[in-house]
Amino acid sequence: MHETRDAARELRMQGLTFAEIGKRLGVSKQRIAQCCAGMNPEATAWACRIKNLDCIIYPNLKKWMLENKVSIPEMMRRMGFDTGSMRSESFRNKLKGRTQLTITDIKKILAVTGGTFEQMFTND
User: Fold this and answer.
1) For residue range 70-101, what is the model confidence (pLDDT) as tens digits?
2) Element (H, E) at 81
3) Is 65 helix (H, G, I), strand (E, B) or coil?
4) 73, 53, 69, 34: which is closest to 21 by C-alpha?
5) R_g of the chain computed on alpha carbons
6) CA pseudo-torsion sign 44, 48, 54, 58
7) DSSP 4-62
């Protein structure tokens, strides 16, 4: 009876969307929303954001963001960037290694994290 609810909640805590969970479990996203009702919204929201950090190619920056619960949009806000879709996609591409971070980006990341270049951008 609670199998769908329990499975849905587990998948939600892994960061899957209602649609992704519904597809996996063979039910509608509306049913998944019902199953997940009452869950801690802060915890589930963070779980969804964690999944988006997988794209970051800088392991120490990613680790800092995970430890401090800073999502990519939150990092952008802290850096003083607009989180509009074009700017956000551009910044994600930089974190994915598709394009290069500018010296301004690097300085802002270091200001936010309090780390050094070596701490944030070298592989240990």
Assistant:
1) 888 888 889 988 766 677 788 888 998 999 99
2) none
3) helix
4) 34
5) 17
6) negative
7) HHHHHHHHHHTT--HHHHHHHHTS-HHHHHHHHTTS-HHHHHHHHHHHHGGG-S-HHHH
pLDDT digit string, tens, across residues 34-49: 888 877 666 666 555 6
> What pLDDT score does 51 carry?
67
DSSP state of 122: S
Q: Give yes or no for a contact between 50 and 15, defined as CB atoms under 8 angstroms apart.
A: yes
Q: Give the residue carrying structure tokens 């930089």.
A: 94
Q: How far apart are CA 21 and CA 18, in angstroms?
A: 5
Which tokens sit at 68? 């401090």
Rounded Cα distance, 82 and 54, in Å: 22
